[in-house]
Amino acid sequence: MWFFGSKGPSGFSSSSTAEEVTQGIDGSALTAIVTGASSGIGVETTRVLALRGVHVVMAVRNVDAGRNVKEAILKEIPGAEIDVMELDLSSLASIRKFASQYQSSNLPLNLLINNAGVGTPFMLSHDGIELQFTTNYLARESNIEGRIVNVSSIGHRFTYSEGIRFDKINDESGYSSWYAYGQSKLATILHAKELSRRLKEDGVEITANSLHPGAILTNIMRHNGFMNGFFHLIGKYFLKSIPQGAATTCYVALHPQVKGVSGEFFMDSNISTPSSMAKDVDLAKKLWDFSFTLINPK
């Protein structure tokens, strides 16, 4: 992490904002899907991409909330191209419906920004899979043209001792909401690395990277009363602002410095080093196969 605003090799730092890291970039030829675009850094990511001319498709669970965000952005940026589509990442049926509708729209797709995430106590998704694993990771199992950006977290370092509990994903005994969150974020990084490897192997010019946006005061811990209260208490002193929190996402999605860069982990708009588990090639391959069985049950 580049502390106290000191700049890294990219020329940016932890204090850089999404507008600053995309200054002068023309994204008018691009179309992006942003999940979780109706709150937190998803809103700022959508706004800044639209500011740079990107046609943004907001993939949101609450369509009304998404439309409110769209209207607010259009007041600031009258010429912004923004669409709102329904997507519930806790439901594989909803994901498949969204994919089908998007394909039918005949819109191109250059940027897929997997931003949505949750931090919850033990819950199962609509498909009977642990909710954090489904929403924060499993819903990202797709191959899209252009740049794929997975918003992960430094929290990936705080997971179960085995990294991914393949045999206990839905086991409530021994469940820790904090470790489950870390597990889902570790999976997000491993997914980007394995996807990147496969794309390179196939000679496909698509990049896949993951990132830590920084510690930000958002509503992601709303299900954890203690942590939510703690973050809100100290947040104004130590945490990033929303514009700073969205910076690394926008940097990885748009900046020319990231062209052709794939399989990396970013923090503070610079390439960083994730945990040793996040670099485990065999674990990434095992996760890929495991995920395929979950989303393609016999």
Automatic annotation (TrEMBL):
Pfam families: adh_short. Belongs to the short-chain dehydrogenases/reductases (SDR) family. This is Short-chain dehydrogenase TIC 32, chloroplastic-like. It comes from Gossypium tomentosum (Hawaiian cotton).
